[in-house]
Write a structure and sequence with these properties.
Distance between the termini: 51 Å
Order of helices and strands: HEHEHEHEHEHEHEHHHHEEEEEEEHHEE
Strand content: 15-25%
Number of helices: 13
Strand order of the largest sheet: 14-13-12-11-7-10-9-8-15-16
Length: about 425
């Protein structure tokens, strides 16, 4: 069994061969502005962009001042802070924008950033709206900008290794994909009134109050429908259709993107249909706590499940099955009847365990995120499309949003027509 350390040794050699930059002059660095400095930015993106000598973080923007107060010392040195993202885009010295806001803001900011001549690192999912995903692609192409979507598993050495297993043909014809994302937005036990949990729980969703000091609630909402402020809407925004699509697009896009990558998918699924329920709490304006989605592709079917099982992606073929997640991957034979006939399996089961990805608030060229940022840097210089170009990210996001649209339409099938999605009667 190979562990992650041996993978990272090979990854480090690959990065070195690609030419990791070494402390360039300030005039040779790309100047970065962050829009959105919440948990994702603070825990991973700011450390990685600060660590990479090809970048210099010069500006931070957030609608919630406590986020800025936490992020600015993490950057260190001279960094300007703003409450309005347009002030970042107005700066001529800023070359690159990192967008790590709630999902409903992603594409509006992306379009403006592209028009302002900035290259963009965009957190996943691309949007919580299908049409906005397509507008994001159009903006990147119109203004010839490099846009990297933060599906960093496409830069991961271990995930690349699993990709090679699939390309070898060891699984046979893959006809079925299953992605498991345990949990929904049900309250967790023993949570106090202060809330907690990435997808809900804690304070009642309907509880409204005045926004806390330092929060621009009007700017937070952006183009979304106007709602009274509530703690849950601010802290657990992914659970609300106005701002996100719940776990389905948050983690589901990571898991489905693996299947798209491994199976060469270049457009969204043909259709999506959902089964769902609010079983752990009363139905409200948040996403369901229990969800099953079925997608139809030209050459396979795919299912999403929120069942209580290990998170990851399964690819089922005629000859074998692959299971992969951030802890490793397994390939095992599934050929029918070989056990009963006394034959030998077509291949031996293989397990690769991965354990030591850097922790939050740490940075490394060998980490998945570090390699993703390196690929972004390389493409800014070459003007080539990055490993997770906006079109790739959008086409992996759209099926999850089709699933969400099915939920909001009572489980009706949603069909992709090549340039949009529609609910079937």
């Amino acid at each position: 069994m190979e562990n992650r350390r041996s993978f990272l040794t090979r990854a480090a050699l690959g990065v070195a061969a690609a030419g990791v930059p070494s402390a360039p002059a300030a005039s040779d660095q790309f100047v970065v502005g962050f829009i959105g400095t919440g948990i994702r930015a603070n825990a991973s993106l700011i450390p990685q962009f600060k660590f990479n000598p090809g970048f210099r973080v010069a500006a931070l923007c957030d609608v919630y001042k406590p986020n800025l107060d936490e992020a600015a010392p993490r950057v260190g040195g001279k960094v300007d802070t703003y409450g309005d993202y347009r002030r970042v885009l107005d700066r001529k010295d800023i070359d690159v924008v990192v967008i790590a806001t709630p999902d409903h803001w992603h594409v509006p900011m992306l379009i403006e950033a592209c028009a302002a001549g900035k290259d963009v690192y965009l957190e996943k999912p691309v949007s919580n709206d299908i049409d906005m995903c397509l507008k994001g692609i159009a903006a990147a192409r119109k203004y010839n900008r490099v846009v990297q979507v933060g599906l960093m598993q496409r830069s991961s050495a271990p995930f690349m290794e699993a990709y090679k297993e699939v390309q070898s043909g060891i699984l046979g014809k893959v006809r079925h994909v299953v992605v498991i994302n345990p949990g929904g937005s049900a309250p967790r036990r023993n949570q106090n009134a202060a809330g907690g949990g990435a997808q809900g729980g804690g304070r009642a969703a309907a509880e409204s109050s005045d926004p806390p000091p330092g929060l621009d609630w009007e700017m937070f909402q952006g183009a979304a429908p106007r709602r009274p402020y509530s703690y849950q809407r601010q802290r657990n925004w992914r659970s609300y259709w106005d701002y996100g699509c719940g776990p389905l697009s948050d983690w589901g896009v990571h898991l489905l993107d693996i299947a798209h990558w491994y199976l060469g998918v270049t457009e969204p699924s043909r259709s999506a249909a959902a089964a769902f329920g609010w079983f752990s709490r009363p139905q409200d304006d948040r996403v369901p706590d229990t969800t099953e989605i079925s997608w139809q592709y030209p050459n396979f079917v795919a299912d999403y499940s929120s069942r209580s099982e290990v998170l990851g992606t399964y690819l089922w073929g005629d000859e074998g099955v692959l299971f992969v997640n951030r802890y490793g991957y397994t390939v095992r034979p599934v050929t029918a009847n070989w056990r009963n006939t006394g034959g030998k399996p077509p291949f031996e089961e293989k397990k690769v365990a991965l354990h030591d990805e850097p922790q939050n608030y740490q940075a490394s060229f060998e980490s998945d995120c570090g390699r993703h940022v390196m690929n972004f840097l390389s493409c800014i210089k070459s003007r080539q499309r990055p490993v997770c170009d906006i079109e790739i990210g959008a086409f992996s996001t759209i099926p999850t949003l089709m699933g969400g649209l099915s939920i909001r339409n009572g489980g009706k099938t949603v069909a992709w027509n090549g340039h949009g999605a529609a609910v079937l009667a």
